[in-house]
Design goal:
Elements lengths: L1 E2 L6 E6 L2 E6 L2 E9 L2 E8 L7 E2 L14 E2 L12 E4 L3 E5 L3 E6 L4 E8 L2 E7 L6 E2 L9 E5 L4 E5 L13 E4 L21 E6 L5 E6 L5 E4 L11 E6 L5 E5 L4 H11 L14 E3 L1 H5 L3 H15 L5 E4 L5 E2 L2 E2 L12 H10 L3 E6 L2 E3 L5 H6 L5 E2 L8 E3 L2 E5 L5 H14 L7 E4 L11 E3 L6 E2 L6 H17 L7 E3 L11 E3 L7 H16 L5 E2 L1 E2 L9 H11 L6 E2 L18 H13 L1 H14 L4 E2 L1 H4 L13 E3 L3 E3 L9 E5 L7 E3 L5 E2 L4 E5 L7 E4 L2 E6 L13 E6 L5 E9 L12 E9 L3 E10 L7 E5 L7 E4 L2 E3 L4 E3 L6
Parallel strand pairs: 22-23, 22-38, 23-26, 26-31, 31-34, 34-35, 35-36, 37-38, 48-52, 51-53
Antiparallel strand pairs: 1-13, 2-3, 3-4, 4-5, 5-21, 6-7, 8-9, 9-10, 10-11, 11-12, 13-14, 14-20, 15-17, 16-19, 17-18, 18-21, 19-20, 24-25, 27-30, 28-32, 29-30, 32-33, 39-40, 40-41, 41-46, 42-45, 43-44, 43-46, 47-48, 49-50, 50-51, 52-55, 53-54
Helix pairs in contact: 3-4, 6-7
Length: 799
Amino acid sequence: MSIHEPYQFNLIEEDRNILTFQHEHIKAHIFILEKDIMRVLFSENKGLKLKQTWSIAPGLEDVPFEGRDRFDVTGFSLPDYRTVKDSGTMIIETDLLKMVVQLNGFKASWYVKRKEEWVLIAKDRSTQAYHFDYSKSSGPAHYLERNLEEQYFGFGEKTGSVDKHGKRYRMETIDAMGYDAEFTDPLYKHIPFYMTRNQQTGVTFGLFYDNLSSSIFEMGSELDNYHGLYRYFQAEDGDLDYYILAGPRVQDVTERFAWMTGKTIMPPKWSLGYSGSTMSYTDAPNAQEQLMEFLELCRKHDILCDSFQLSSGYTSIEDKRYVFTWNDGKFPDPEQFIRDFQENGLKLCANIKPCLLKDHPFFNDLSERKMFIGNKLSQEAEMAQFWDETGSYLDFTNKETYSWWKEQVKDKLLSYGIDSTWNDNNEFEIWSREAVCNGFGETLDFETIRALHPLLMMKASYEAQLEQNPEKRPYLISRSGSPGMHRYVQTWTGDNRTSWKTLKYNIKMGIGMSLSGLYNFGHDVGGFSGPAPEPELFVRWIQNGVMHPRFTIHSWNDDQTVNEPWMYPERLPEIRNLIKFRTKLLPYFYTALYESHAGYKPIIRPTFYDFEHDEQTFKENDDFMAGEALLVASVVEKGDRVRSVYLPDHSAGWYDVHTGEWFESGQTAVIPAPLDYVPLLAKAGSIIPVNTADVTFRDKNKDERAFLLFPAKEEDESSYRLYEDDGESALYQEIFAYVTVGMKTTDTDIFITVEKEGSYVLPYETVAFILPVNENRTLTVNGTKCASGEAITLFGRGD
């Protein structure tokens, strides 16, 4: 049915910040959760189609396997609010957010408090704003008015420009091998969240639909003469349950959404290092030999490498892949192979898949035990296309399946010495309307919870790793997922295609992910499918890749070539140094990763994230911030050796990290962009921690600390807090340290103060402070004058 005049809703209950309204068999529930968060949930009298949520986890690290009751408001502050009601309208307001509901048709308008005035941010469409049809053909829908001054950001992993106004997207998880980063849709992830920014008012708010079925976001490509300008969300199944996050800034919305969906996992430090990978090695008949050759070539070429992603070829029999098996022809001695990697300081991350082919050795047993997603007509396992065969997807809503998966991860991988799991090909491509799941003991249509299965798969893998070694932090990867996936895994943007355009549009895709609360990610450097990258493109992609939390070179090239650091000998010196530059920046990235976990702050940010006051930053560009201080100006055009980059409005200006040149902000600067370093600028006033040790493949644990200083030219004060720990112990042990560096500048002096707090014993005693070239002011550290780059003893072994 559609809700429109004369469908009158009446308030029937008000309890614990939940107001319930009734119209015949439909109920509307308004939740006042925070001063800046409200929620609307529609249900039928007979109840919800899905009683639980796995997305909502305010400030939490996990939710139960069975999910969280949709009416559970634990973790929210439930603030005071005010209501005003007359014959046709209900007004609900907190100190920051106001909802005005026309009860005839239940049409809402939303306002944000700014400078003591209420600013309109959103309004339901005046004609048929809501649609409920629980038939096979369509599901619930929500229509809002659209304003041509609005910009739309987020949507998780989506192609195209950063601003999605005028686009139409399907939120559906599929294996989009070799996608076009500008146009292909849908992709791998299901993140039904976006934010709206009005360019006239400058106010931003977020909108999250807690729905796990396939859906459509129509953001302005559709017009209908009868309804004016509109946008809408429509799901194929499930309930209409949406959250309004008030903002009013972009960063307020992003960080609030990240908090609401749970803490970003804090993985071990080695997860930030270069991770080697290619399909070719494990697909080869002599896979173990080829992997040993990879180790030898890393050693020979002094390529710093911290981990390796073991592609699914290790499970293959002929041309098929059988999860939780080892091909003993390719890997005659898996335990020795694993020991060899560990002795060389490389962790192993093994590929696992949630579908068992019909001739898998475990298939018949699991089928008899009803551990696959089933077909309600045949009462048998639902068969689906998977790689080069058909098979059945495991039903992770079945507790027996969930437990079986954990035991297999532990028995077949972790017990061998494998360090982590790569949860892959987990889009659950089942298209039958007859597919059903165990549903935690209450049968559910698969479509209702389509996007839940990858989340439960990674949660099961996470728990297996935690149970195997509870004193160490788990590290996992997943390709697919839904809101809440960041609580368990690092991710990447899937099987991209080699081209200059992919390099450019993967940047924009990553910004959409960051704005949607997915902070720990990267892209397949060099392109996964298609031709091998030409040398220049490969170098530029590595320059871009080393500035992301996840840095891996991964490929399955059409021409059978392999993307490796040494694939172009003439470019090897640049590539080696770029990977070492990544290692140099690890203290900065590790602290940024910790801030994403503890403070809900993104690592990769659009320039408008921290400089929203500068309207110029909202223009489409190819730049991004890595953390709060570094502006990355990736080269995305062939042949360029200089880069034009707009410098956001920052009163102290900007520095070219490599040349030391200072620039006034609010202008477009032209900086050098050679092949041998990352075009990079630092915000003046920033303090960047680095590892200045001469790290080699044979000695990857060397760690010496310095801080790159980029002082303001005039009087200024700034500070930076470095996070340090052993890089792998579980956080509950609370063995860590903060090193806080303060910087005060005058016309003649730069004063540095350094303080340490916490129980972790730092692996270094001396620290150096490095000033830009041509900086001549006197440097004083904790009261002692010193030279730029001079090592100063600040910490004893007991500190």
